Amino acid sequence: MHTKTDSEVTSLAASSPTRSPRRPAYYVQSPSRDSHDGEKTATSFHSSPMGSPPHSHSSSSRFSKINGSKRKENKQFAMIEEEGLLDDGDRQQGLPRRCYVLAFIVGFALLFAFFSLILYGAAKPQKPKISVKSITFEQLKVQAGQDAGGIGTDMITMNATLRMMYRNTGTFFGVHVTSSPIDLSFSQITIGSGTIKKFYQSRKSQRTVIVNVIGDKTPLYGSGSTLVPPPPPAPIPTKPKKKKGPIVIIEPPAPPAPVPMRLNFTVRSRAYVLGKLVQPKFYKRIVCLINFEHKKLSKHIPLTTNCTVTSI
């Protein structure tokens, strides 16, 4: 394209005839393709359609294309920006919902845990009460025998009945009751054993628990001498009638000393206050000291004051 100088544009404007009304002049700057030094600009004068230079039409079409492309880019940018704003709005609306759900779950868990702690704290002081009433020895027999290794020793066979009272003091829960083995020992040897059958005790109720303590041919290894019942007293000899002499008073033999025994076991109680989530446990360790006498065989031996009940 040929670039006109400022002098040519001025002379052209002076030689052209005067027309009315005169239209305003438009100047369009475009980069020069022939210049290598980075110079820009060429000016074009438009006075009328008839007096326009040959290159004015191409400059106007190029200008309209540039404006059209810019408008299209602006529209595309506006659409992209609008979509981004919509996406951001969706994210901003979705985030609080998830937060609300999470806050509800956490709050419900905390409230449930607090309620469970309240129930546990209310149930823990309501411990069951246990009192051992008596024990009755139906059988206690010592005889010679052999242990599993063939060693000769005294063997004891016994059968006793233990009675106790169990009371559940809980006002809003029942308990499931079991026990450890009930061991009856003599001289650190367990001569009998039994256990409480599992049972359920409803709230604010009580029952009498009966346990059989049984031992069959337990070796004593020299400790059974005191368990052997004493022989019956010898008959008092009759005095001869013909002979007179001093009167001899025969005293009956002294009764054997009581045989000390020890009863030891643990009663376990478990309450299901809120299903398996809240399970307060109550353990009672019971130790009873028994003074057995052969004359009390098949009789009730009271143990109310001889037993110690300890919570563990």
From TrEMBL:
Keyword Ion transport: no
Record InterPro entries: Lea14-like_2
Pro residues: compositionally biased ranges: 228-238
Cellular component per GO, a single term: plasma membrane
Signal peptide annotation: none
Ranges of compositional bias, category Polar residues: 8-19
Sequence ranges of Low complexity compositional bias: 44-64
Keywords: Membrane, Transmembrane, Transmembrane helix
Region (Disordered): 1-73, 224-244
Membrane spanning residue stretches: 100-123
DNA repair recorded as keyword: no
Name this polypeptide is given: Late embryogenesis abundant protein LEA-2 subgroup domain-containing protein
Organism: Arabis alpina (Alpine rock-cress)
